[in-house]
Structure formats: C-alpha cells, structure tokens
From TrEMBL:
One of its GO terms (biological process) is homocysteine metabolic process. This is B12-binding domain-containing protein. The keyword Acetylation does not apply. InterPro entries: Cbl-bd_cap (IPR003759), Cobalamin-bd (IPR006158), Cobalamin-bd_sf (IPR036724), Met_Synthase/Corrinoid (IPR050554), Meth_synthase_dom (IPR036594). It comes from Candidatus Aeolococcus gillhamiae. Keywords: Cobalt, Metal-binding. Residues 103-223 form the B12-binding domain. PANTHER family: METHIONINE SYNTHASE. The keyword Metal-binding applies. One of its GO terms (molecular function) is metal ion binding.
Length: 223
C-alpha cells in the first residue's frame, strides 16, 4: 500500500513565546542565543524531556512549515537543524526520580529511505533519562539489519521513526516481522503525526506523537 504525501498542516495558533524566540534564533543562525534559551528552559523545568517536547519539537515543526511555504530557504533549514542537533547534544541529563526497571532496553530505528534523524536523537535522550538503554540505529537502516539486531539484542520495545514515507509496505512488513518475534513496536515521527490513524494501518502497537507521550507508552509496553 502506498500513501500520498499529506498536504501541509494549517497552523491554527501561534507557537508559545519561548518557541517563537527559539525558532527565530535557529532561523537567524544564532546558535549562542538558541543555546541560552534552551538552557534557561532546562533550568526552569529541570527536565530535558520538557526542552525536547516544548521547545525543540515545535520549533523544528515551525521551521518545516516556513520552508514548505517558501518563507525560508533550504540553507536556513539545514543551518537550523545543525544548531538543534548541537543544542540537544549539550543538554545535561535529567534522570527521572522513578526510572524504568534495570535492563529495560529498546531499539530506535529509521528504515531505508528515511534521512530525518533529529526526532530519533532527541527521543533517545528522553528515554535515557527514563532509565532505558537505547540502541539507536541511525537512518537509513535496511529492514534486514533491524530484524537481525532485534533477534540478537532482544529489546523490550522497538521504535520505528518516519518523517518521509513514500510507501508504507517496508514499514508494515518490518513491524510484522518484529512483532512475530514477540517484541512490541511503537511508531512515530512527523509522517505519523500528519496521518493520525496510519499507525493502525501499518500494524504497530501504538503511536508516540512526541517524546513526552512516548515515554508514557514505552512504560506501558514494558508492563
Ligand atoms: C530538518 C528536516 C529535514 C532535514 C533532515 C536533517 C536530519 N539530519 O535529520 C533534511 C534536509 C535532510 C530533510 C530532507 C527531506 N525532507 Co524534511 N524536514 C525537516 C524538518 C524541517 C524538521 C525535522 C525535525 O527535525 N523535526 C523535529 C523532531 C524533534 O520532530 P520529529 O521528527 O517529529 O520527532 C518527534 C516526534 O515525532 C517523536 N518521534 C520521532 N520519531 C519517533 C519514533 C518513535 C518510535 C516514536 C514513538 C516517536 C517518535 O518524538 C520526537 C521528539 O518529540 C521537517 C518538518 C517537520 N514537521 O518535521 C521536514 C519534513 C519532515 N521534511 C519533509 C520533506 C518533504 C523532505 C524531503 C522529501 C525534501 C526533499 N524534497 O528532498 C527530504 C526527504 C529526505 C528523506 N529521504 O528522508 C516534509 C515531509 C512531508 C511528508 N512526506 O509528510 C516535512 C514535514 C516538511 C514539510 N513541512 O513539508 N528534511
């Protein structure tokens, strides 16, 4: 089965103030100011998960919408992404008070045609703060390699990310194969956020719309 690229989501409200300032720093290439805003938010919330879900995620979506509308160019978008990757990598860990059980382990992956990596990277940070051991397979990962890793590493959960999904067959076949090994599969990424029922169509156990929702779902799947 194939799915056409969905049309851009119409923005119904303006992002909240820290997101506006953060987005504007990203778009003007001001890494110093973007870092300061992120660190201030980290200090205020005491949570790397909050910075990821409330700041980084909405800012990158805003950048994506502006690019889609032709308001910003590819160079600005690439520069913004590079800054986001650097900022996220410098956030100090904020382990949660009640981590998941010792040894809880997951694999996060993007499949063959996927090139978007930021969502997986920040999600991995959030899950590490929850106590998960995260094996991140940076996209593009061939499905056969994902399946080999699942068979060898025996994770408690597998997460598959898709922002750009020209066809769903590869993802649904991979999900079926992982679930046949009795490992639950969560899906996420901006493509799934744009097509809210797609996770059921591809046979996943659940869809994590952002890092915060995902941490809750992962705990449920761990049982
Ligand atoms: C940066 C970017 C790029 C960069 C990626 C750089 C990199 N190293 O990652 C580059 C330039 C490579 C790129 C390329 C393309 N891109 Co692009 N890109 C983006 C952009 C602006 C931001 C992505 C991002 O960083 N998001 C921020 C993170 C934090 O959000 P996230 O990925 O959704 O992750 C969060 C959640 O979804 C969730 N999550 C993520 N993964 C997972 C996994 C699991 C298991 C779970 C549970 C949860 C979960 O948790 C995360 C944290 O909260 C988006 C806009 C957008 N709306 O996402 C477009 C966007 C995704 N790209 C788009 C397009 C069209 C493309 C290209 C086709 C453009 C082109 N013509 O070449 C190519 C496709 C490349 C490919 N084969 O994958 C479209 C996709 C449209 C669609 N099909 O629906 C978007 C939506 C832009 C738009 N508005 O149209 N892109």
């Amino acid at each position: 089965m194939t799915v056409d690229a969905p049309v851009a989501v119409r923005r119904t409200r303006r992002p909240r103030p820290p997101v506006v300032a953060f987005t504007s720093s990203l778009l003007s290439g001001d890494a110093k100011s973007a870092t300061e805003i992120a660190w201030r938010y980290l200090a205020a919330t005491g949570s790397r998960l909050a910075v990821i879900s409330d700041l980084i995620h909405p800012a990158q979506y805003e950048v994506g919408e502006l690019w889609y509308q032709g308001t910003v160019g590819v160079a600005e978008e690439h520069r913004a992404t590079a800054i986001v990757i650097a900022v996220a990598g410098r956030l100090t860990p904020t382990p949660v008070a009640r981590p998941v059980r010792p040894g809880a382990c997951c694999i996060l992956s993007g499949l063959t045609r996927e090139r978007h990596i930021v969502g997986l990277q920040v999600l991995a940070l959030a899950l590490e703060d929850e106590g998960w051991t995260v094996h991140q397979l940076a996209p593009p990962t061939p499905p056969a390699e994902l399946l080999r890793a699942v068979a060898e590493w025996r994770p408690d959960v597998v997460g598959i990310s898709a922002a750009y999904l020209p066809a769903t067959r590869e993802i649904s076949e991979s999900i079926e194969a992982v679930r046949a090994m009795k490992v639950p599969v969560l899906v996420g990424g901006s493509f799934f956020n744009r097509a809210p029922d797609l996770w059921r169509t591809v046979g996943a156990d659940a869809h994590g719309s952002d890092a915060r929702v995902t941490t809750v779902l992962m705990r449920k799947l761990l049982g």
